[in-house]
Every structure is written in C-alpha cells, then in structure tokens.
Specification:
With 269 residues, this protein is of the alpha/beta class. It has two domains: 202 residues, 2-enoyl-CoA Hydratase, Chain A, domain 1, CATH 3.90.226; 47 residues. The protein has eleven helices and nine strands. The strands form two sheets. The protein has a six-stranded mixed beta sheet, sandwiched between helices.
Length: 269
Amino acid sequence: MNTDKAPFKVDIDGHIAWLIMDRPDKRNAMGLDFFPAVTEHFREFDQDPNVRVVVIKAQGKSFTVGLDLMEAGGILTDSTAAGREALRQKIIELQQSMNAIEQCRKPVIAAVHSHCIGGGIDLLSACDIRLATADAVFSIRETRIAIIADLGTLQRLPAIIGDGWFRELAFTGRDFSAEEALQMRFISRICKDQEDLYAQAGELAGQIAANAPLTVQGVKDVILYNRDNGVYPGLQYVAQKNCAQLPSEDLMEAVTAFMEKREPDFKGN
C-alpha cells in the first residue's frame, strides 16, 4: 500500500489501518490535496483484504479546523456562469472524498481531540463510530461564515443525532462540547486525554477486527441500505445478503471454536 499521500500518514497495525492527518502546522486544515488523498486512501483500504478496520486520528493541537479557506479562496473568485458551473463540479468532486469514507466496506472509527470544525463534521458524519477527548469542541462552522455546509453534514448528521439537535446546530453554527456530543449520541465515548483516546479506539478496533470480516462488512452494508431504503426493503436485502454469504468457512470456524472453547481465528472466507 502506498502511504505517501500528503497530508496523511498511514500506520498498519495487524488488521487495523490508522489514517493520521499530518498537517499539524496548519491544525490539520483541509487543503485541496486533502480530499483526493482521502478518496485514494479509502479505496485502497476497501480493496486491501488485510485491513478490517480504519481509525482516523490527527497530529498536532487540533483534529481539524476544517476547510483551508486561504486555499479554497481561489475557486470562489470567478462569478461568471462558467465559473459557477466549475464550482458546482468542484464541490461534487470534494463530496466524493466523504462518500469514500462512508462507502468503504470496512468500519471507520474517528478518534477526535480538541477542535473538530466545519469540514471535520462532514468527515465525522461519514464515519461509523466517533470517540472524543473531554476537551473536544465541535461546530458546523460553515453557517457562521456564510457557507452552506456541502460535503455531507446536512445529509448524514440528522440520522445520527436526530432532527431537533441537528437543526439547532446547523442554524446557529455554535460550538458544542464533548459532553453535548455524547448526550446527543454524536460520539459514543468520552476519553480523558489523547493517550486514553487512542487506547480505547485501538481496543474497539481490535474487537471489530476479531470478528469475521465479511460479516462485519455485510453488517455495515445492511445498515446503510436500511437507512436509505427503510425497514421492509432492508429486511428483504439482509435475507438476500445472508443467502449469498452463508454458510461460510468463518461460520464453521466459529462453531468449531465454540465447541473447542477457544477464540475463533477468522480468515475472511
């Protein structure tokens, strides 16, 4: 796997891929190189049979302060019809990076410390699980700078936290704390500091990676299908999914391990 895609580093630990935002001097502001790199990384994670879980974390003082407005300013200067169409196409291109996170068959955990602003909420909304340190601060900051959030927050966040909380945060753009994020179920755990954050993220990722990988991937697929299509189509879909997947070698391994009173060793077959 090619890990040299700025502004990221990748650390593979067993079946866990740690995707590390590595622009600490800019507090991990999302420059224009950020988005294609996200897309490429997640396509690689999706296709790598060794990777079963992805954890996103960040170097430096902040998880991310969102879009790098200095870099993005260059795509906002042409007010002609052609310029506006080019901007529309660029936004759609940037959206693909967040889609790639959600569409990756492997579960994705976000481990957030300090500030997670603007585009950071788009990123988190596309992840499966979110953990944060006690000092974490979140904001749909676009509203406060006269931009409509356009990379997925307005589409994904309501299903995560509910419509009431969502509208308040989207209309005000106000900061909200880790405690509030936990209360509204945006995050599932508060960790005391970064060391604890990464320890808990790694432990959780390890628990997921220990399960049969094709089953975990199937669960994620069915979850997304249910969200987008409803209960009864979702029931039909999971019936078809299991018919295609069962029986499997991993199922036989699970039964054998239970009878032998040991932990199963799943191979993804």
